[in-house]
């Protein structure tokens, strides 16, 4: 939401707090009907579209009155049977796998549902399956988990609005904190396209994504548009989408800001949505609401991702975010992802102050625990304009790294153990990933509270309190701990019955070779970092990619030869001895980018990119280069310590990636050659 707030919008927000507590009218409850007064089944594909996948998945939403009922489901495309399902609909969503056609097309699917034992009663639900040609910059939504699929990986976007023209250093300042997305408030004017291309290019170099605002040419909200005709506005909209639809930094198109508050008719936005999607079906379209439950059914055909922007501080309780998140989840679960805009401004207009550090933390985790799979703060204007408190903004960066660490859990589709909190002032949820149960908790009030979380199916054991680098013992099936005022915490429990304790490889001279020590989320421990000349070069641990354990090291070199170097904790070697140095690595060739624009062919050229090589050095004794490939591969080199040096030498292994791009590294080892123990 822009800075030109109107008083009636502020009043609308205050009224919204009261409305939150009111029950839905029956006309809203039964908006989707099949037959007179009967809630309908709804059929959707799990992904908004498919491209490289060989199989897909249907999500069949079951009406509340037919849950716990034995159903038979058959899904057809024409006369072809795609899949079938039989059983008791224990949940509100039935998942069904199906094979995709090899050709790219849009084709219909129809689910025929009958109640077992009563074939006379049948229900039907229709949808379309979309199979598009694969594009390297495509972004699809996962309706089940709420993730966006970027570079073939689930991603939890975590970023902020900023102003335009975009500060030339804001991306490099914020990417190193852990932020992965920006959304500039910008005017779409032909004369300033070079400004927009410049910040998009920089984001692509850094591996940052852009939630691209089209507000000034899509709807009359946000930054004031020039006084132009609707015909000219539409022409600019089309040209802008064409200009950036293939850009590697593009995440999503943002077409409307609070249309319900500004009383923009849904049909206008549906027309804009259709225009954008006809040009670019490979990226989602977003919309922000003040009170989304009131507008969801009116505008639902005009967005792929729904956003809400509650700004409660200081006049209303911060648990407004929790209430709103629950309503978003109830309305859109399994249909469209939900993102939340968290307040990071104050001191003027109708907001007397900014949120405190603690309020920012509570609001952010309230949103996430209640289903948000994207966070976008309003607003960042660095270094200390919005928010004025650099400490508060540092806390947002801290949470960006926490979310990145936990994203495989937050975006998991596995069924987790049910959890309940003994306090209504503490929200909790659970997620399961690879046999480990994560329990998330947040305190919604401004006082310390005792935390008591009951977990189904758990009988004793320990939990890692991962953001405090400590452990606690479970009280049978309960976590007993404390949360500070507006505090949050994540607990991790290994549910694998035969979970083997990690055994230290005493022959390996490298400390924390697999980056599994998480004393600070996202940051490798046993190493020093030497910054490259590009201040946006990054080194983070990554829980989405690894060879073993649950972490790897991700290096991003934005520009050739300007990346970071990590020097690992020193190890002792002996004069005259030979050592085997090995590590695993992989890269993403599709993510490589050089900001050279071919104005004749109107595209970017990678012809000047050099091979994406990485380099390891062992003190002054040895240096070796290798080129990471698309698949994980082990690289091995050898070094002999000169016999005429000191008998025992303390030296360091260093790793750098001068080649532009992104790569992951894991299982770094230095062992005496006589051990011959490099095999995995």
How many beta strands in the DSSP annotation?
40
Q: Find the structural class using helix and strand composition.
A: alpha+beta
CATH superfamily of the largest domain: Glycosidases
Q: Report how far apart the termini are.
A: 52 Å
Task: Explain this structure.
19% of the residues lie in helices and 34% in strands. The chain contains twelve helices and 40 strands. The strands form ten sheets. Strands 17-16-15-14-13-12-11-18 form an eight-stranded parallel beta sheet. Helix 10 (320-332) packs parallel to helix 11 (357-369). It folds into four domains: 7-27 and 156-410, TIM Barrel (Alpha-Beta Barrel); 41-131, Immunoglobulin-like; 419-494, Golgi alpha-mannosidase II (Immunoglobulin-like); 527-675, Sandwich (Jelly Rolls), CATH 2.60.120.260. The longest helix is centred in the middle third of the chain and has 21 residues, at 390-410. The chain starts with 6 loop residues before the first helix and ends in an 8-residue tail after the last strand. The chain is an alpha+beta fold and 680 residues long. Mean pLDDT is 90; it is low at 2-37. It is globular and about 90 Å long.
How would the blueprint of this fold be written?
Elements lengths: L6 H14 L5 H4 L12 E4 L9 E7 L8 E8 L2 E9 L4 E7 L5 E11 L2 E14 L7 E3 L6 E3 L2 E3 L2 E5 L7 H6 L5 E4 L8 H14 L2 E5 L1 H4 L11 H15 L5 E8 L1 H4 L3 H14 L5 E5 L2 H8 L5 E4 L11 H13 L5 E3 L16 H13 L5 E6 L9 H21 L8 E3 L4 E8 L2 E8 L5 E7 L6 E4 L4 E4 L4 E6 L4 E7 L32 E4 L7 E5 L9 E6 L7 E4 L2 E4 L3 E10 L9 E2 L4 E2 L9 E5 L3 E5 L6 E8 L7 E4 L1 E4 L4 E12 L8
Parallel strand pairs: 11-12, 11-18, 12-13, 13-14, 14-15, 15-16, 16-17
Antiparallel strand pairs: 1-2, 2-5, 3-4, 3-6, 6-7, 8-9, 9-10, 19-22, 20-21, 21-26, 22-25, 23-24, 23-26, 27-30, 28-29, 29-40, 30-39, 31-38, 32-37, 32-40, 33-34, 35-36, 35-39
Helix pairs in contact: 10-11, 11-12
């Amino acid at each position: 939401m822009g800075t030109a707030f109107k008083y009636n919008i502020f009043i609308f927000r205050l009224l919204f707090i009261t409305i939150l507590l009111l029950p839905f009218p029956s006309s809203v409850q039964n908006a989707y009907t099949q037959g007179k007064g009967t809630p309908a089944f709804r059929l959707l594909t799990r992904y908004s579209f498919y491209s490289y996948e060989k199989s897909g998945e249907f999500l069949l939403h079951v009406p509340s009155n037919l849950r716990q009922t034995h159903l038979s489901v058959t899904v057809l495309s024409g006369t072809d049977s795609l899949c079938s399902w039989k059983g008791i609909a224990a949940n509100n969503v039935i998942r069904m796998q199906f094979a995709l056609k090899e050709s790219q097309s849009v084709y219909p699917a129809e689910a025929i549902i009958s109640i077992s034992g009563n074939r006379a009663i049948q229900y039907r639900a229709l949808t379309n399956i979309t199979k598009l040609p694969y594009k390297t910059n495509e972004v699809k939504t996962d309706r089940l988990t709420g993730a966006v699929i970027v570079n073939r990986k689930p991603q939890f976007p975590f970023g902020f609005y900023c102003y335009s023209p975009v500060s030339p250093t804001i991306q490099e300042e914020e990417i190193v904190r852990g932020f992965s997305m920006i959304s500039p408030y910008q005017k779409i004017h032909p004369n300033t396209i070079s400004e927009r291309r410049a910040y998009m290019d920089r984001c692509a170099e850094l591996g940052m994504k852009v939630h691209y605002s089209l507000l000034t040419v899509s709807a009359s909200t946000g930054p004031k548009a020039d006084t132009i005709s609707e015909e000219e506005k539409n022409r600019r909209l089309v040209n802008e989408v064409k200009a950036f639809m293939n850009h590697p930094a593009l995440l999503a198109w943002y077409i409307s800001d609070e249309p319900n508050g500004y009383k923009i008719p849904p049909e206008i936005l549906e027309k804009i949505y259709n225009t954008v999607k006809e040009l670019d079906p490979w990226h989602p379209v977003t919309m922000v609401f003040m009170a989304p439950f009131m507008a969801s059914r009116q505008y639902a055909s005009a967005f792929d991702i729904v956003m809400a922007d509650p700004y409660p501080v200081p006049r209303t309780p911060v648990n407004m975010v929790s209430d709103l998140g629950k309503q978003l989840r109830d309305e859109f679960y399994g249909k469209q992802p939900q993102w939340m805009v968290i307040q990071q401004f104050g001191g003027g207009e109708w907001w007397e102050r900014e949120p405190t550090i603690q309020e920012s933390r509570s609001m952010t985790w309230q949103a996430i625990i209640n289903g948000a799979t994207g966070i976008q703060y309003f607003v960042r204007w660095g270094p200390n304009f919005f928010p004025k408190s650099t400490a508060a903004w540092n806390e947002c960066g801290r949470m960006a790294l926490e979310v990145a660490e936990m994203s495989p859990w937050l975006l998991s589709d596995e069924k987790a153990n049910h959890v309940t909190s003994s306090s209504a002032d503490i929200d909790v949820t659970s997620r399961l990933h690879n046999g480990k149960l994560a329990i998330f908790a947040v305190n919604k009030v401004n006082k310390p509270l005792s935390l008591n979380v009951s977990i189904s199916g758990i009988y004793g054991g320990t939990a890692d309190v991962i953001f405090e680098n400590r452990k606690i013992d479970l009280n049978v099936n309960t976590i007993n701990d404390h949360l500070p005022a507006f505090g949050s915490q994540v607990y991790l429990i290994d549910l694998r019955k035969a979970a083997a304790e990690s055994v230290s490889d005493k022959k390996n001279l490298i400390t924390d070779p697999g980056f599994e020590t998480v004393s600070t989320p996202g940051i490798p421990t046993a190493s020093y970092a030497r910054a490259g000349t590009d201040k946006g070069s990054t080194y983070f641990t990554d829980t989405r990619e690894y060879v073993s354990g649950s972490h790897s090291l991700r290096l991003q070199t934005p520009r050739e030869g300007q990346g970071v170097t990590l020097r690992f904790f020193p190890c002792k070697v002996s004069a005259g001895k030979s050592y085997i140095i090995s590590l695993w690595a992989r890269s993403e060739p599709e993510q490589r980018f050089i900001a050279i624009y071919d104005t004749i062919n109107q595209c970017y050229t990678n012809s000047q990119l050099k091979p994406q090589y990485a380099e390891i050095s062992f003190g002054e004794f040895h240096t070796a280069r290798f080129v990471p490939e698309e698949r994980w591969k082990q690289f091995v080199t050898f070094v002999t310590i000169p016999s005429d040096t000191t008998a025992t030498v303390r030296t360091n292994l260093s790793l750098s990636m001068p080649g532009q791009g992104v790569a992951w590294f894991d299982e770094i080892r230095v062992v005496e050659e006589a051990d011959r123990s490099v095999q995995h």
